[in-house]
User: What shape does this take?
Amino acid sequence: MADGGTSPAGQPSADERREQRFVRRTAAYRSARRVLARPGFRGTLRERLALLHETRSLDLYDPDEQADLYGGGIVEALEEKTAALLGKEAAVFFPTGTMAQQVALRCWAGRTGNPAVALHALAHPEVHERHAFSQVSALRPVRVTSEPRQPTAEEVRDLDEPFGALMLELPLRDAGFVLPTWRELTEVVEAARERDAVVHFDGARLWECTSHFDRGLAEIAALADSVYVSYYKSLDGFGGACLAGPRTLTDEARTWRHRYGGAVFQQFPTVLSALAGLERELPRLPDYVAHARVVAAALREGFAAAGVPWSRVHPGPPHTNEFQVWLPYDADVLAEAAVRQAEETRILLFGNAWDGKGPGLALTEVSVRAAGLEWTAEDVREAVGGFVAALDRVVAEAVGG
Assistant: This one.
């Protein structure tokens, strides 16, 4: 039967089973007593509204000030704070990172006279944005490499056509949240400069990178001409993004933001949540990264002890507080085992979806945040044993059925 196709009478289709499992996973997450991460976006409306109330105790911004209207006020405060953290002259707030990066690279193309943007084949604009660079912004993506790693300086130097900008996603999420070494990063930037190109960092998760590079945010961002950062991926904000760079760039970016429909009437709830994230989550990220390495090692040990024929935790050790787990089973089987373990034990080891990568092979992404700090290595190994036991039952039922 084709995936999502016709099922026997009375039986749900593959798509319906996945939808049912999503509902079950959501319920299991809500009732779980132990998870590795509780990102804010999974919260209820009541919980998200409570965050705004809690910001009053953080002294983030004077609540008696006039609310923002098309920017200004609290929006400017966030822009100035972000620019200072990144060591850039100025920053401009955007409702989405997709818009921020299109505007940034469109502005750079006007300055360089070249609309070609060199980037990784797995970069977010290539995989997740419906070809927005070429369809909306008159930019021409040029793929530096398709390998599941960061581009090398040699690949940038040897690219067989001119390009106006090099975009580097730090970390490269779809390759496993991978980062280059500091030396590799500086060499790639130097190679782009040799090609007379500007350098733009897709830093949606740049906040998580300081431990790996052993450098502060400003020193990392100083390598690039412009940097985009997200406020919800690492910092648990409601949304929003910032583009930081020279003031001449951000001033022009404000014009294009308006043209792209990003001049939103009022944004204070999102901006307050971003300020709260910078205050509360940003200082904790190094702890999350350090513990992610503990969790990853324990996962590897747990699968080996449980007799799983093959597993991979990638990268090892993790470069940030997020990484991939690969297992030799179909995605639906792994997803069912993860949900069943949570329903039976209220321990949700794998809370994200499983992505099939071929017959009998799938991966999931693991994120370690505040809730994960409560897990010891032994807790992780025990949870792996429970997950594998559930997996064995699901496999046996599939064979028997």
